[in-house]
Amino acid sequence: MNKKGKTAIVIMAAGQGKRMKSKRAKVLHPLAGRPMIEYVVGLAKKMKPDRIVLVVGHQAEEVSALFPGRDVRIAEQKKQMGTAHAVMQAENLLKGFSGNVIILSGDIPLLRQETLKQLQREHIRTKAAVTLLTAGVPNPSGYGRIVRMEDDSVEKIVEERDASPREKRIDEINSGIYCFQSDFLFKALKSIGRKNAQKEFYLTDTIEAAKKKGLPVHAIFMDDHTEVMGINTRVELSDAEWILRAEILEKLMLKGVTIIDPASTYIDSTVSIGRDTVIYPNTEIYGATKIGKDCTIMSHSVIQDSKVGNSVLIKGFVFIADSIIGNRAQIGPFSHFRPQTVLGDEVKVGNFVEVKKSVIGTGSKAPHLTYIGDSTVGKKVNIGAGTITCNYDGRHKHKTVINDGVFIGSDTQIVAPVKIGKGALIAAGTTVTEDIPPYALTLSRVPQVNKEEWVLRRMEEEKKKKEKK
Fold first, then answer.
1. CA 134 to CA 248: how far, in whole Å?
2. Long-range contacts (CB closer than 8 Å, 24 or more residues apart) made by 420-427
3. Please, are residues 315 and 331 in contact by the beta-carbon 8 Å criterion?
C-alpha cells in the first residue's frame, strides 16, 4: 500500500448502538440501499491494505455474513468494554504484522478515500506514533474533545463524560479515525486502564501514552466535519442519508442523466442509469436496479431490483419489483409488476394492469384493467380490457400459455392450467376452461334474449299500482 511499510486496517463494528432504539445492530442499518458497514469496509478495500480486520460484537453473525470472502478477517468482541478493548481483539489476527494500523469506525460511512490517503501520507511523513483526524463541529456534544498545548500540539483527548465544563466548550472533536505504528499501538493498549466515567478501555488514552514516552502525535484538522460524522441516532442516520443521496444524484447528472427535481428523487447507491434518461419528480429507484439509455420515468414511480432496457417509457404511478423490462416498452400509468415478470421489447402494458411471475413476448400489449399471473404470453398478443388469468384454485398455482398472435377480447377469464394456440381469437366475455387449438375462434356466452317492450309493460304496471293507492 505504501513504499515505507505495510498497512493494516481495523474496523470497529461491535457496538449495539443503543441510541438508535432498534433491535438491529447500528452498523446494519441501511443507508441509501446498503448497510452502513458496507461503506466502511468498501473504503478499506479501496485502500488495498495488507490486511483488513473487522471487529464484530452485537449481532456478530449477521454483520460477518456480509463479508464472506477471505479479504476481510473477523475478530469478535464478545463483551463490549470500550474502543481500546475492541482493537485488542484484532491483535491475534495481526500477529507477525509490522507497519501502520489504520483504525476506522463502522458508524462513520461518509469518509472519503482521499482523506484517508492524506492521513496515511501525513503519518508516514511525520513519523508519528499516532496520527488522528480531528474536526470542528457546531455541536460537539457526545464527542471526545481535543485538548491542545500552548504550542498547538495535541495533549490529550477527553471523552464527553470525563470532560470538565471548560473542556466541554472545546469544539474540536476526535473523529475516531487514527493511524498508528503497530509496535506502539499494541504495547500502549496493554498499558491502558479504565479509571473513567464509563469504566471502559478508551483508545483515546493512547495519545497520553505516546506523550508520556515522548513519541510524536500528529493531528490533521478537517474543514468538512460532515465527512467524519458519526451515526448514533435515527436523526443522524437521516442526515447522512440526505448527504449521500445528494452525492448519488450529482454523480448521475454529471454522467448525463436528467433529474428534474433532485429534492424529491430517491435513488440508491446501488442503482445504475444510462445517459439521456429523464427522471421526473417523486420517483424512487432502489436496490440492484439497472436502467438503460434514453428512458423516461415519470412521477410517482417506484422501481426495485429490476432491469429496464433502453428507450423505455414508464408513466406515472408504476410499481416494478424484481422484473425485467425490454427495450422500447411502454408501461403505465397505474401498473404493477410483481417479481419474476419479464416484458419483451416493444411491449405495452397500460393502466390498472398487474403482472406477476409472467413472460410477455415482443410487441404484445395489455392496455388496461387486466391481471396476468403465472403466464407465458407469446409475441404480438392483444389482451383486451378486463382479462384475468385465473391462476389459483385455492390450493395451488397453475400456468397459462398464450401463443403468438392470439387476440383476446374484453372481459375474458382464462382458467389455468390452459394453453391457447397460435393465432386464436377469443371473443369478448368468454370463460376459457380448456385448451384452444391454433387459429380457432372461441366463445362461451349465454345466448342473448330480447324481450320486446318489456320495460314499457313494467312501467305501466307500476303506474297502475300507484293509482290503486
1. 26
2. 422/378
3. yes
Q: Single out the residue of 299, 345, 346 nearest to residue 318, CA to CA.
A: 299
Residue 337 to residue 318: CA distance in whole angstroms: 8
Q: Decide if 327 contacts 342 (C-beta within 8 A).
A: no
311-332-293 Cα angle (round to 5)? 15
User: Scanning the structure block, which residue is given the C-alpha cell 389455468?
Assistant: 416
d(CA 273, CA 260): 15
Contacts (Cβ under 8 Å, ≥6 apart) of 4? 124
How many angstroms separate the CA atoms of 286 and 205, rounded? 42
Which residues are part of the catalytic machinery?
368
The CATH classification number of 6-228 equals 3.90.550.10
What separation in angstroms does the CA of 201 have from each of 56, 189, 397? 17, 9, 59
Rounded distance, CA 380 to CA 363, Å?
5
Rounded CA gap, 145 and 338, in Å?
Answer: 52
- For residue 10, the one-letter residue type is V
CA-nearest of 231, 233, 222, 224 to 146 is 222
Enumerate helices (H) and strands (E) in the chain, giving the number of each.
9, 39
pLDDT of residue 4: 53
Q: What are phi and psi of 8, to 5 degrees?
A: -120, 155
Cα(273)–Cα(285) distance, rounded to whole angstroms?
10
Q: What is the 3-state secondary structure (H, E, C) of 193-214?
A: CCCCCCCCCCCCHHHHHHHHCC
132: phi then psi, degrees, rounded to nearest 5:
-130, 155
Asked whether the CA dihedral 432, 437, 438, 441 is positive or negative, the reply is negative
Which CATH architecture is the domain 258-442 placed in?
A: 3 Solenoid (2.160)
CA-to-CA distance for 53 and 44, rounded, in angstroms?
10
Closest CA to 386 of 375, 409, 370, 373: 370
Q: How far is CA 374 from CA 349, 357, 388, in A?
A: 16, 5, 11
Give the residue ranges of the chain where pLDDT is below 70.
Answer: 1-4
pLDDT in tens, 61-92: 999 999 998 899 999 999 989 999 999 999 99
Domain ranges of the chain: 6-228, 258-442
Q: What pLDDT is stored for residue 140 in this prediction?
A: 87
Distance CA 213, CA 283 (A): 58
pLDDT of residue 431: 96
